[in-house]
Amino acid sequence: MPASTSNLATIITGASSGIGEALARRLAAEEKQTLILVARRAEKLAALAEELQKAHGLRVDVIALDLEKPGAAQELVDEVAVRGLAIDTLINNAGFGINDLFIDMPLERIQGMVQLNIVALTELCHAVLPGMHARQQGRIMNIASVAGFQACPRFAVYAATKSFVLNFTEALAVEERKHGILVTAVCPGATKTAFHDIAGNHGTFVEKIMDSPETVAASAINALNAGKAVIVTGLLNKPLPFLLRLFPRGIATVVAGILVQREKAA
Ligand SMILES: NC(=O)c1ccc[n+]([C@@H]2O[C@H](COP(=O)([O-])OP(=O)(O)OC[C@H]3O[C@@H](n4cnc5c(N)ncnc54)[C@H](OP(=O)(O)O)[C@@H]3O)[C@@H](O)[C@H]2O)c1
């Protein structure tokens, strides 16, 4: 493993695929900070770590962990400390959604979604901030979604978790600005990743207007470094928050549900 010139590290949750993997690739190419890749699939993380280390000559660590487990965030922070690293950049990207009626979703999946999308993300932010304050520097990127701007039938829980991420992160950005810490909520629109396989989101309108994870990652990193509190990625998505204000909430909610209705829903 190449020697690192500092103990400062960038941690990326959900780095084994999709947007997280694209963020890892871009950060490895653009920045020389040690990377810590986190997700459940250890073998995927290890392969990516080896590739990035070879290509860019930086230290890339792997921590395989299920962030849906209560207490996992603290476990992660403790493991980083054991490795002698300090978290300078936190990227909370791991997350999933389910396209289904709320009543039909298994309760354990709902609990896991809330634990991953909200609880682990919040606990990680809380754990890293004292160190960032002490160093008077740091960056936090939380991956929300355009779904965070809008209630969405069939994605009732997912959209609500992303509203939490969006509102929490915007507030945190204002609190932390005076401490020299950059905080950004990233709101991608539909992006071509395994998210849609896991969500059961095939045969919907949103599938037709997908961005690439690489495009999302590039916009996200630019926004973080520019100190933007919120970035909506993708040209088609950018006007969405503004347009939503023009419609009564009830109508916007019904339309959102239609856009994610599967063509052959049971
Ligand atoms: N794709 C879209 O259209 C879209 C749009 C807006 C926002 N987003 C958001 O973007 C983020 C990344 O999603 P993606 O589109 O890149 O989907 P993805 O390809 O399915 O990636 C999700 C990542 O999260 C990890 N993950 C899932 N459950 C986990 C758990 N319990 N513990 C630890 N890691 C876990 C997965 O790794 P393992 O399976 O190896 O654990 C994977 O690396 C999510 O927060 C998602 O909500 C996606």
Describe this structure in words.
There is one protein chain. This protein has helices at 18-30, 42-56, 72-82, 107-135, 156-177, 195-199, 213-225, 240-244, 249-259; strands at residues 8-13, 34-39, 60-64, 86-92, 138-143, 181-187, 230-232. 47% of the residues lie in helices and 15% in strands. The model has no long low-confidence stretch (mean pLDDT 94). α1 (18-30) runs parallel beside α2, α1 crosses α7 (213-225) and α3 packs parallel to α4. It has a single domain, classed as 3-Layer(aba) Sandwich (Rossmann fold). α5 (156-177) links the parallel β5 and β6 (181-187). It has 266 residues and is α/β, with parallel strands linked by helices. Strands 3-2-1-4-5-6-7 form a seven-stranded parallel beta sheet, with helices on both faces. The protein is built from nine helices and seven strands; from the N terminus they run βαβαβαβαβαβααβαα. The relative contact order is 0.13. The structure holds NADP nicotinamide-adenine-dinucleotide phosphate. NADP nicotinamide-adenine-dinucleotide phosphate is lined by residues 13-20, 39-41, 66-68, 93-97, 116, 143, 145, 188, 190-191, 193-195, 198, 213.
